[in-house]
Design a protein that fits this description.
single chain; 196 residues; alpha/beta; Rossmann fold; eight-stranded mixed sheet; two-stranded antiparallel ribbon; 4 helices; 12 strands; 21% strand; globular
């Protein structure tokens, strides 16, 4: 279990970044991710709307060419603690969820389960060089992506965390329910998980 004071410290560090630093980091992460090739083949991609200093993934969507569909996480009403992903299209209508975060209104034709995505850009509070992640603490991503812990059958979606370098920790001891990321990208580096 992650110490709440550690989460507070990491969240404070990212909120202390100036608006210019936030923009510069988002652009650097975008370029690093595009240069890596990790995202090139993905056609159905989930991202997030940043809150509280999270690294902004929207430059990636703006600069990624080709025919792709973009999805945002939505809290599932009938499966508490889990996410589904709703397509973000020009005609999307919005609402605020119980945490005050904007999310697209779900219509059954636009909903995709995590298994239907090629790639998910994941927000985080902290990470280490082995691509272990500390989230906000509610476990939405870990519960929704639990099927990935046994990668014998599930090769997608790939999970890429986006972060500021100031969120990196020396080591994180993962809990049994934690789903590791395939990579983490910051303004300074690309960290990739080595296969077990």
């Amino acid at each position: 279990m992650t110490d709440p004071s550690l989460r507070r410290r990491l969240r404070h560090a990212r909120r202390q970044l100036s608006q210019r630093e936030q923009r510069d980091h988002a652009e650097a992460v975008c370029q690093r991710l595009l240069d890596s090739g990790l995202i090139r083949a993905a056609r159905r991609i989930a991202y997030y709307l940043p809150v509280a200093g999270e690294l902004d993934p929207t430059p990636i969507r703006a600069r990624l060419p080709g025919q792709r569909r973009w999805y945002l996480p939505v809290l599932r009403v009938h499966a508490p603690g889990r996410l589904w992903f709703v397509r973000n299209a020009p005609e999307t209508r919005w609402r605020r969820n119980r945490f005050g975060i904007l999310e697209p209104r779900a219509h059954h034709r636009q909903i995709v389960p995590p298994q239907g995505l090629h790639l998910i850009l994941v927000p985080l509070v902290g990470f280490d060089a082995h691509c272990h992640r500390i989230g906000m603490g509610a476990g939405f991503y870990d519960r929704s992506l639990a099927f990935l812990r046994d990668r014998q059958y599930w090769q997608r979606p790939r999970l890429i965390g986006l972060a500021h370098e100031c969120q990196r920790l020396d080591a994180i001891e993962p809990a049994p329910w934690d789903v590791p990321l395939d990579a983490v990208v910051t303004e300074r580096a690309l960290y990739q998980r080595r296969p077990a």
